[in-house]
Structures are given as structure tokens and as C-alpha cells.
Design a protein that fits this description.
The protein is of the alpha/beta class and about 725 residues long. The protein contains 26 helices and 22 strands. The strands form six sheets. Strands 1-2-10-7-8-9 form a six-stranded mixed beta sheet. Strands 11-12-20-17-13 form a five-stranded mixed beta sheet, covered by helices on one side. Strands 5-4-3-6 form a four-stranded parallel beta sheet, sandwiched between helices.
Length: about 725
């Protein structure tokens, strides 16, 4: 039953809450607007969700004047609940963690008699799971408690839909892009639903921070609260997301300072993160300026002791000092040696190069090499200076034109941005999560084919066909065509196998022509008779009012299969790592809860893609070196993932390494499109293999290792197995 006194109070609060201003900010490339949610009474956009959650709880009778509200928060949501609960005259117990800003904690402790603060993280779930566990304990202690549960409460979503969402579409009847930072998922879910309902042709860009798992990235230590999460919140599945950007905390800090310097806005961390994402997204923009809006979700006063404190920033290597630590090393490299073929010698070569200087120019003056972690991130993030488009064009009649059109990996903005946004509308986190039953079925099929064999070939009988079959089924390819995909997947591995036959290129070219013809004919059928599959969705999707050409859709499918090799090779490298580290194998068998961080450590320790190529289209400075336009640049990801400035004891294979901000799946706009799907495939395939075996070892004499200078992995890996239940 509704408490009439509380209902009157909370309705009065709604009338007093202001409509926040929408202001235009000067920008060289876009028409940019900021909605100043920091002007809310609680200082952030969290007021909107907190108000609607409390309002509906009061209406339902879940909250009365005798109720104590108990909630987990890293800062802003607690502040919103704090002033609202005080106005309502009810009690609040906020549950915090060590990442909370000092000023926020002081304000809460001055207001409330009881404030809980957890001390340590809980596994990969980090401090969030520790806070949630404590909330559950506190709620059990109390006779009349209410937990708002901001991560799954649909009332929070509705608050953003009804309040800032409605204000935004009224103020901006024309909007091309809306950028929203994500944490609980309520803000982006409510706003995206409103703008896509009321406006035409608007793209919603989700912004997450490195170390958050919401968009499928690996969990790692984060220092700045307010954006990101160590769990994937259920509300994110209600969001309409067109594209996404993942920003490092270093970029987040820079974004805050840029907003203050350029626009006089003292903004919080999440706002700086979104501003950094906008500038990266529209770097090098050509054409009419689009209308872009974002939320200034919180103010910067609570961050004076963190983001705006040079000592705090420097101590956590989040400022400029962290990225130019080696800036003084600009001397020519005189003892350059070519990378050796032997794997152990090659790893030593990478370590030596990185320690000598993270950015080097070959003495032959035939290109630049980037070995350092911060320097590699800088190159990968700066697509305006470092182009991904191949320097050499393919002949028109080349069989490998299949990989050209629609291949996001070989594409720069603005076309990359357009196609990535289109794929993002189809290839959503919810879509990938919905593939889990199909992935599980596929894993079981290939596991049953090898189960019981004392020796089996792991690559071609298990890892590779799982990945290729998942892609084929996701696209909608019928069973007969799936075999063609499996053959094609094997061909792609053969291309990088140094022991392949001399005519392998001719064989692969022939298969590429065959599958190109197959896919073009298949797409023709899907255009006229669409089904519930990815191919049909791509043929029906549009970019700026135009549908994709068949060759672009074919290129996107080819990209999915070729990048799927990352999952195949990670599965292979996992077996190699565990075989070479038997203590880790035993520990993992005893606790499969370590499988997630173990997979991330495999990616770091045996980076499936050793290096990637870029070339400069304008002069750029990296690590104290000025690189002229027109220069080839090699980014050695395998070296960056062993940079001692970032990874403690990088030579040690550590199952539970945290943080683990590896670059195995890339960084910036070319971050792996299928990262979430790859992690899902790897987790399921490894989990089932470990559950079904009691012993596994690699017979290296009967295996074929790849050249680590190009790829860490194997084209054939013979496993010796003892299966569960065997005597």
C-alpha cells in the first residue's frame, strides 16, 4: 500500500527537479552539444534513475517511512540516493569500496549513521561483487529494507527515458549521434530507447572504459569510478546500441582536462571518457558536420583529489608522463638484428628491443618498429595518422579481392565508421549472448568426435572446426556449405604455416574464388527470401540510407571467419601454455572459475597475432620520435604485452594475473569485432575439454608449430589424452 505522506513528498521533488541545460560546445569537425546532467541536485545523471526507482518503490508500497534503503555504489548513485532519502525522511546505508572518491565518502559519512565499505575484491567480479555480497548481508539484518538494485531495476531505465530522454529529443529534433557512457546500463538503455523511438536516423554510441567487461573486454584493475563495470549488467540488453568505443583510463583523464581547458567544464571521469571517445571517433572527419550530443553526466568537484590531482594521476601512470617515459630515447638503433625464428630466441629478442627503446627505426631506414605498450596503444588509437588501409592494392582479378570490400581491418574512417556502426546494430552483445546454445551444441559435436581417442589432432579435429562452424551457422550457411567454411578455415591456417606445400597459395586462391561465388549466390537468395540469420540481417541493413553491396557483405563474412582464427589459435596456445606449465594445469582443473582470467593470460603470454602493420598518412610523434608521412610502421603486439612498465614479471605465466590490459585483440577503432564471441567459444571449448579429460599433453614431435615472427600457435597439435572414466 502506498505511503501517502511519502508519495506527496516524492511528487513534490519531481516538480522541483530542473530540466538540465543543453549547451553547444565549439568543435572543429562536428556540431557538438552537451547536456549538463551535472546540474542535477545530486551532481550527476544518477539523480534521474534514483528518483524513478524510489518513486515507483513508494508507489508500490515497497518503501514506507520505516524503510531503510541499502545500495551498492562507487559514488554518484549513492550521492543521489543520499539527498533524496534525506528529503523523504528515510534511512540509507550506502555500501562503498576503496575506489570511492574521498570527498564522496566524507559527504556520506557526515550524512548517515552507517556507511559500509568493503576492503577487497571478489575474483574477476572485483569490488562490485564484494559490495553486492555486503548489501545482501545488510538487507538480511534489517526488518524493513529496500535494495534499489541499480544494475537490473527497470525503473532506473524508465527514469532516463521519461526525463533526460524526453528533454533531449525536444531540444534536438535533429540528432545524428548520441554518445553515452555505460556502467549500470540504465542511462544508455533509457536514452537510446527514447531517441530511437522519437528521432530518425540516430546512431547511439556506447562508451566503455578499458578494464570493464560490459562490451566483452577483459577485466582489469580500474582506478576511476563512475563508468564501466566488472560484471555485465542485465539492463544493457535493453539498450539500442549502434557502435561502441572503449577508452583507456589515460584517455579518460586527458578528456577531463581537455574539457576544462577547451570549454571551461569541470567534469567527472565518465564525462571525460565520453569526450575522449567523441574526439577519437571523429578524428579526420570529412563531410558536413553531424549533430552530436553527449551527457555531461557528472561534475568534477568529487574528482579534485584524483583526476585533477597531478600526483594522483602520476602515481597511477594515467597521465602524459606514463606515455612518454621513454621520450628521451631518440638515438638511432645501431645494434639492430633481424628477429630469429626460434621461439625462445624470438621472445628474448622482443624483450631486448622493448628495453632498449620502445620505438625504433630500422638502420636500413625501411620502416619504424613500435615495441612499447603505451607507444603501441598510441599508434593503434591514432587512426588519423596511422592508416590501416593496405599500401598496395590488389589486382582487380585477384582471388583475394574477397577480403577487400567490407573488410573493416583494412579500412579507415569514414567508411570504417559507417560499416562498423551498421554491423554494431546487428552484432550486438545481446545477439552474441543468444548464440551460446548454438556454440555449446557445436562444441559438443566436435568433442564427441574426439572423445575416447588416446591421441587426436587438436587443431583440425577440434579447435578450428568449432570456430568455422560457429561462424557458418551464425551466418545461416546450410550444413553442406558449412563444410566449405571448414575447408576455408584450414586454408587460412595453411597460409601462415612455414611447412605448407609450395603450391598452397594457388590452392587457397582457388578456394577463395569458390567461396566468393558461393556467398554471392547465397546472398542473392537471402535478399529475396531473408531468414533469421546474420547474412539476412546484413543484406537488409542500411548505411546512410543505402544498403550494403553484396561484395561488402561477403567481405564482412570473410572478416568474421579470418578474425575467428584468433579464437582457434588461442585454443591452441592455451594447450601449449598449460602443457608447459603443469602446475597451472593442475590449478585450473581444480578451479575452473579461473578459466576466464586464464584465457586472458594465454592471449597475453602467447599473443596469437605477433604484429600488425600501419603506415603514416601524416607526420606523427610517438615515444619522442617524429615519424614522417608515408612511413611503414610495425606494431609488435607480442612485445607490448611483455612491457615491464605495465606487466609485472611478464615472463611468468600467471593464471590469475590482474590487471591484464593486454593488446592481443587490438585497441582503438580496430579492436576485434568478434571479441565477445571469441571469448565465448574459447571458454566453452576449453571448459568441456578439461571436464572430459583427466590428463592432456602435447606431442611436439608430431605437431607443426607456426613461425612466431608472424603467429604464435600451431597448424597441427597432437594431443595425448586420458579421458574421464577410463581406467
Amino acid at each position: 500500500m502506498t505511503d501517502a505522506v511519502l508519495w506527496e513528498r516524492i511528487e513534490a521533488m519531481r516538480r522541483e527537479m530542473p530540466r538540465t541545460d543543453l549547451v553547444r560546445l565549439p568543435h572543429s569537425s562536428i556540431e557538438l552539444y552537451a547536456k549538463l546532467e551535472s546540474a542535477n541536485p545530486g551532481g550527476s545523471a544518477k539523480d534521474r534513475a534514483a528518483y524513478w526507482i524510489l518513486r515507483e518503490a513508494v508507489r508500490r508500497g515497497d518503501i514506507t517511512r520505516h524503510t531503510t534503503v541499502v545500495e551498492s555504489s562507487s559514488g554518484n548513485f549513492a550521492l543521489s540516493l543520499s539527498w533524496m532519502c534525506a528529503r523523504l525522511g528515510i534511512q540509507l546505508i550506502p555500501v562503498l569500496d576503496p575506489n570511492v572518491n574521498g570527498s564522496t565518502e566524507r559527504a556520506l559519512r557526515e550524512t548517515w549513521d552507517r556507511v559500509e565499505k568493503v576492503e577487497g575484491p571478489v575474483g574477476a567480479g572485483g569490488f562490485l561483487l564484494a559490495r553486492l555480497d555486503r548489501v545482501a548481508e545488510v538487507v538480511k539484518e534489517l526488518d524493513d529494507a529496500y535494495w534499489p538494485d541499480q544494475y537490473s531495476n527497470l525503473d532506473g531505465l524508465r527514469g532516463h527515458f521519461e526525463m533526460p530522454g524526453a528533454e533531449l529529443v525536444e531540444a534536438l529534433p535533429t540528432l545524428n549521434y548520441l554518445f553515452v557512457g555505460i556502467s549500470t546500463g540504465a542511462t544508455i538503455a533509457g536514452l537510446s530507447q527514447r531517441v530511437t523511438q522519437d528521432l530518425e536516423d540516430v546512431s547511439v554510441i556506447a562508451v566503455d572504459v578499458a578494464g570493464s567487461v560490459i562490451l566483452g573486454g577483459p577485466p582489469q584493475r580500474r582506478y576511476i569510478p563512475g563508468i564501466g563495470s566488472s560484471i555485465r549488467p542485465p539492463l544493457i540488453d535493453h539498450a539500442v546500441i549502434t557502435d561502441s568505443v572503449i577508452v583507456s583510463e589515460q584517455e579518460e583523464v586527458a578528456g577531463c582536462h581537455d574539457l576544462l581547458r577547451d570549454h571551461g567544464l569541470l567534469a567527472g571521469g565518465s564525462t571525460g571518457c565520453v569526450y575522449a571517445a567523441i574526439n577519437r571517433y571523429f578524428a579526420g572527419w570529412q563531410g558536413p558536420p553531424p549533430v552530436v550530443a553527449f551527457l555531461c553526466a557528472d561534475g568534477g568537484k568529487a574528482y579534485r583529489d584524483t583526476v585533477y590531482d597531478p600526483a594522483w594521476v602520476s602515481a597511477r601512470h594515467l597521465g602524459q608522463a606514463a606515455s612518454v617515459k621513454w621520450a628521451g630515447v631518440a638515438t638511432p638503433v645501431t645494434d639492430w638484428t633481424s628477429p630469429p625464428e626460434d621461439e625462445a630466441e624470438f621472445v628474448s629478442w622482443l624483450d631486448t628491443r622493448c628495453e632498449q627503446a620502445p620505438v625504433q627505426r630500422s638502420p636500413k631506414q625501411d620502416g619504424w618498429h613500435v615495441f612499447g605498450y603505451a607507444e603501441s596503444m598510441a599508434v593503434l588509437a591514432d587512426h588519423a595518422a596511422f592508416s590501416s588501409e593496405p599500401a598496395n592494392t590488389l589486382p582487380p582479378n585477384s582471388a583475394f579481392q574477397l577480403f577487400r570490400a567490407g573488410n573493416l581491418s583494412w579500412m579507415d574512417p569514414p567508411r570504417h565508421r559507417q560499416l562498423r556502426a551498421l554491423v554494431g546494430r546487428v552484432f550486438t552483445p545481446r545477439y552474441v549472448a543468444g548464440l551460446a546454445p548454438m556454440v555449446e551444441t557445436t562444441v559438443e559435436e566436435y568433442l564427441s568426435a574426439v572423445r575416447g581417442r588416446p591421441r587426436f589432432e587438436y587443431v583440425n579435429d577440434y579447435a578450428s572446426p568449432i570456430v568455422s562452424t560457429v561462424v557458418a551457422r551464425m551466418v545461416g550457411i546450410p550444413p553442406k556449405g558449412q563444410e566449405l567454411f571448414r575447408q576455408w578455415s584450414a586454408d587460412l591456417l595453411a597460409l601462415i604455416d612455414p611447412l605448407s606445400a609450395s603450391n598452397v597459395l594457388k590452392q587457397v586462391a582457388g578456394r577463395a574464388r569458390l567461396i566468393s561465388a558461393y556467398l554471392h549466390e547465397y546472398l542473392s537468395r537471402r535478399r529475396s527470401d531473408p531468414k533469421d540469420d546474420l547474412a539476412s540481417a546484413l543484406t537488409q541493413a542500411e548505411v546512410d540510407g543505402e544498403r550494403l553491396r553484396d561484395d561488402e557483405v561477403v567481405g564482412l563474412i570473410a572478416l568474421l571467419l579470418s578474425t575467428g582464427q584468433a579464437a582457434t589459435l588461442t585454443l591452441v596456445n592455451a594447450m601449449i601454455c598449460l602443457d608447459q606449465h603443469p602446475d597451472a594445469m593442475a590449478r585450473l582443473r581444480g578451479d575452473l572459475g579461473l578459466l576466464g582470467p586464464a584465457i586472458e593470460e594465454v592471449m597475453r603470454y602467447r599473443n596469437q597475432t605477433t604484429r600488425v602493420a600501419r603506415h603514416t598518412v601524416k607526420e606523427a610523434t610517438v615515444g619522442g620520435h617524429t615519424i614522417p608521412a608515408g612511413q611503414p610502421v610495425t606494431v609488435w603486439l607480442a612485445a607490448a604485452n611483455r612491457d615491464r612498465r605495465v606487466f609485472e614479471q611478464p615472463e611468468v605465466f600467471r593464471l590469475d594475473r590482474a590487471p591484464n590490459p593486454h593488446l592481443a585483440l587490438g585497441h582503438g577503432i580496430h579492436f576485434c569485432l568478434g571479441a565477445a564471441l571469441a571469448r565465448q567459444e574459447i571458454d566453452l571449448a576449453m571448459r568441456r575439454m578439461l571436464e572430459q579429460t583427466s590428463q592432456l599433453s602435447v606431442d611436439y614431435a608430431a605437431s607443426r608449430m607456426l613461425d612466431p615472427r608472424l603467429i604464435f600457435g600451431a597448424s597441427e597439435l597432437t594431443m595425448v589424452a586420458k579421458w574421464t572414466g577410463e581406467a
